[in-house]
Amino acid sequence: MRAFDLVGAGTLVRSLARWSRGVGKYGAIARASLATQAVYLGEVAARTLFLAMILFIFLSLWQVTYAALGATAIAGLSLGQMVWYLLMTEVIVISRPRFTREIDAEVRSGDIAYQLTRPYSYVGYRLGHHLGDRLLRLGLGFATGVPLALLYVGPIAIDPVAAAIALAVLACGLLIDFAISMAIGLCAFWVEDTAPFSLLYDRLLMLLGGLILPIDLFPELVARVVAYLPFPLLLYAPARLIVTGDLGSIGTMSVQLVVTATVALWVLGVLFAVATRRLVANGG
Amino acid sequence: MGRLRVEAEFLWAYFRANLKIALEYRVAFWANVFAMLLNDLIWVTFWIFFFTRFPVVQGYDVRDILTIWAVAAFGFGIGVAIFGNCHRFAPIIAEGRLDYYLTLPRPVLLHLLVSQMSVSAWGDALFGLGLYLIVVQPSPPALAGFIAVSLCAGAIIVAHATIACSLAFWLGQAEGVAGAIHDAMILFSTYPTSLFGGIVRVVLFTAVPAGFVAYIPVRYLREFAPWQLGVMIAAAAFYIALAIIVFRQGLRRYESGNLVSVRV
Fold first, then answer.
1. Residue B101 belongs to some domain of the structure
2. Is residue B128 part of a domain?
3. ipTM of the complex
4. Is position B85 within any domain?
5. Residue A112 CB: number of other CB atoms within 10 A?
6. By a Cβ cutoff of 8 Å, what residues of chain A touch chain B?
7. Structural domain tally of chain B?
8. pTM, rounded to two decimals
9. What is the pLDDT of residues B33-64, one digit of tens each?
């Protein structure tokens, strides 16, 4: 019994060591990606300017809409909450790196063959790279967006518990978004150009995710259908959770998130396995 | 007059060559066009949702906003499809790669602008025209008016993008700034100008002339007052002239990169 314990403990320690080495490897990729992106300060400035403009336009649009209706709340959101909601969704959207293009290029040029020979999982490498890049963009987006929202409409009350849950929802959403985007990039194994699919996904995410218009304001039938799609989980859910602190639908949302993430990652795994079987490498 | 004809023939020849190159990858061409059509359709769907909930905002209804989109998409589409380099040439200046255009006996700016075609812009053009035909179901004179104001709007967008990219003559690496200015122009061109007041309204008729895309054309297509068309033509002529002047002034500061390259 004691010997069994020792063997079991040894296995556990070895597994943990392997796991931590694995995490360390992809963590290093994420850190390298983060450091690379930090160099592009000009791009950061351009994004900040874009964010300031888009928030200003949204503010103007919603200001006249609230004034025209004489309403203090629309879809349960005050004007201040609406602007903060739009800030959240906009920052999440503009923090999305266009990495589908890179995968597409790697597949078409054949460079992916070199990536696959390296001592790591290609999907894991891409995930690490993606997260490093995205976390920096999210951080910078919020760092520049929050002062803008404060300037435009002032602060709103935020429930710390709801904000923490919203961050978890956001993290899960990032994983789903990664899986879908990567799957689109891998379609380069079958189609000439994945850019149209990528563009279509981007736009569906913006419209059906509730980027400008919270889905409560969609026509009723559309809102009911959209509620079953993954898009609102990526934008609407975390943004609304932060600004309203409403935890009423957290149970359904959690189930939806887990199911969607599982399905998205499974589809990505299958697609990757099938795609790499099609890969033909000739020496050189 | 003879010179104009020669330049028009040059433009036509380049346009045909660009189209042939684009159509060489037929599937990719139509996929890009279709994707852009869908992209525009999705934005318009947002506005339909919005106006379903709030029927009139600041004097604009759903038909007005769809007209804004039709004008902006058709004007932008035609302009950027033909003059596809208009919002991309800042790096060419910064890296000293203008030499190729300078050594040939054609107007430098015209040659630079037409040397690339934006395939996806054809999707915008098709969308804009289709949207106007479906939503407004115009009479032939109304359709002619739509095409006229849209082409003026397109000329303003191209000229404005040219001015933004020409900043590279003074700033060096101006790709980010030019991109931000161009994005601002497109962004404000797709929202009702009446949402904005004060100094922003002034900016929208000067530095970022989106008012000539999103405001005057909609009024013209509602009221058909000849002066509104006159304003559009005058504004287009002004911004084209300004773009030519700014580019020429900038060209004096140009420094070659002495880059030896092969264009295929």
1. yes
2. yes
3. 0.81
4. yes
5. 21
6. 42-43, 45-46, 49-50, 53-54, 56-57, 60-61, 64-65, 68-69, 192-193, 195-197, 199-200, 203-204, 206-207, 212-213, 217-219, 222
7. 1
8. 0.80
9. 988 898 899 899 999 999 989 888 888 899 99
